[in-house]
Structure formats: structure tokens, C-alpha cells
Design goal:
Layout lengths: L6 H19 L9 H9 L4 H6 L5 H21 L8 H12 L3 H9 L4 H15 L5 H52 L7 H58 L4 H8 L2 H7 L1
Helix pairs in contact: 4-8, 4-9, 5-6, 5-9, 6-7, 7-8, 7-9, 8-9
Length: 274
């Protein structure tokens, strides 16, 4: 049996064979992704602002509290120091004035200084100048009470950091409870398609609020521990300086005899004299 050669059939066979070989040799084509979409997908990463916003409404008071905490830390760093309590220059000036019994001059000097010892000296000398016949025990009580008040003011300023360190975790816990309520409310919802997304948002809000509250609380309590130690040391310096001042003052102070006689001559004694 003879087969007739057909040029058309032979050409079709060659074309089909070449196409089959090309398809085998050609790698699988990858889907084309637009350049803009690929760039957006590569840059779609969570920023710090996105994390903070995901914490919900309770991040607002936590943010305000963190700002106040940082401001207090910076303020205490520059104000709670030995120069704000006592300075060697003022101590030398006070000692020199007291030895000369220049109480009015020392009162004027203490009015120009802002350290705590100067306030104690000013309060004491103000009492002495207005009550020249006051006994030394009364003057001692005035000096001690003013020193205690200044030390209490110093410790009270530091306690603000302790208050913020206690409030911040409570706010974070409140945000945590709010986020968990949202998460469980999503599980109880009717729309099944939105459950995973709402559950993730609620849990994210809870965790972010917890982390923020703990961060602010740890920062505030750490600063409180540092400044509390510094305040205790400065309180001891204030007590020592007040003791030194009053010891020098006691050696030079002499109540006015005229004023003392005037205080002793009350109406009852005048009647007896008559």
C-alpha cells in the first residue's frame, strides 16, 4: 500500500511538532502584578502610630498621662538638686551676718534667694524682727516647723510620679477590659464573615492598652524611686543646714529686755502695783 505525499499535511505536522516542543521548553508563565500594587504591598507595614490608634479611645488619656510624666521627670531632674535646698555661699553669708547680729541684712539676703534654707531663715528672722522679745524656744519652734513644711513640700512633689505610676496601669486595664468585651461581642454576632476581623481588633486593642499602661507605669515608678532617694538625701541636708543656722543664731540672739518687761507687766500685775 502506497501513501501519497501531501505537502500540506507535512507542513501541518511540522508546525504542530514545533509548537509542542516550544510549550514543553517554555517555563510556566507567572501572573503579572501591577507595579503600583506590588509597591503598596511591600510598604504596607504597621507603624507606631497605627499601633497606638489600634489601642482605642483609652490611648488618649494614657498619651496625656505619659506627656505629663515626661514633663515632671524633666522638671524634677533640674529642680530637685542640692542647689535648690542649700548652697555653701548662702551658708557663709548667713554665718557672717549672724555673728554681726545683722538680722535685717540677713533677712534681706534670704529674700533674694530661692533655696529652701533661705525660706527657713526668712520665716525665722521675720518672726524675730516682729517679736523682738520672743524666747528662744518659740524661735526654735518656728524654724523647725518651717523646715518640716519645706521637706514635706519636696516629698509631696515627688509623690506625683507615684500617683501617675498607679493610675496608668489602671487605665491600661480598663482598655484591656474594653477590648475583650469587643472581642467577645464579635463572637456573639450574627455575621460570620466579620467575626475573625472583629475578634482580632478587640484582642489587639486589649493588648495595646495593656502594654501602654504598663510602659507609662514602669517609667513613672522608676523615676519616682530615683527622685525619692534624692529627696530623702536633700531633706537630710536641709535638716543639717537648719541645725547649723539655728546653733549660730542661738549664740548671737538675745531677747530685748524692754520687750520682755512689757510682756510681763500685764494688767493683773499693774493692779497689784497700784
Amino acid at each position: 500500500m502506497k501513501l501519497k505525499f501531501s505537502p500540506l499535511a507535512f507542513t501541518a505536522f511540522l508546525l504542530s511538532s514545533s509548537l509542542a516542543v516550544a510549550q514543553v521548553a517554555k517555563p510556566a508563565a507567572t501572573p503579572l502584578i501591577p507595579a503600583g500594587t506590588a509597591a503598596e504591598a511591600a510598604q504596607r507595614t504597621l507603624t507606631l502610630w497605627d499601633v497606638l490608634v489600634s489601642g482605642g479611645i483609652f490611648m488618649i488619656p494614657l498619651g496625656i498621662l505619659s506627656i505629663f510624666t515626661v514633663l515632671l521627670i524633666l522638671t524634677f531632674f533640674f529642680t530637685i538638686r542640692r542647689g535648690s535646698v542649700v548652697t555653701p555661699g548662702f551658708l557663709q553669708t548667713a554665718d557672717a551676718r549672724l555673728r554681726k547680729r545683722d538680722y535685717l541684712g540677713l533677712l534681706s539676703d534670704s529674700s533674694r534667694h530661692g533655696e529652701m534654707l533661705a525660706r527657713v531663715v526668712r520665716r525665722t528672722l521675720d518672726f524675730v524682727t516682729k517679736n523682738s522679745g520672743a524666747p528662744i524656744d518659740s524661735v526654735r519652734e518656728i524654724a523647725e516647723s518651717e523646715g518640716i513644711r519645706q521637706a514635706a513640700t519636696l516629698n509631696q512633689r515627688v509623690s506625683y510620679l507615684s500617683d501617675m505610676g498607679a493610675i496608668a496601669p489602671m487605665l491600661g486595664l480598663l482598655g484591656t477590659v474594653s477590648g475583650m468585651i469587643k472581642a467577645f461581642s464579635a463572637l456573639a454576632g450574627d455575621v460570620a464573615a466579620s467575626k475573625p476581623l472583629m475578634l482580632a481588633q478587640g484582642v489587639s486593642e486589649a493588648l495595646v492598652c495593656t502594654a501602654a499602661g504598663l510602659l507609662v507605669g514602669i517609667m513613672a515608678f522608676s523615676a519616682y524611686a530615683i527622685f525619692r532617694t534624692r529627696a530623702g538625701r536633700l531633706t537630710a541636708d536641709l535638716e543639717a543646714a537648719t541645725t547649723q543656722f539655728f546653733a549660730t543664731f542661738t549664740m548671737t540672739y538675745a531677747p530685748s529686755r524692754t520687750s520682755a518687761r512689757r510682756e510681763l507687766r500685764d494688767p493683773m500685775m499693774l493692779e497689784e502695783d497700784i
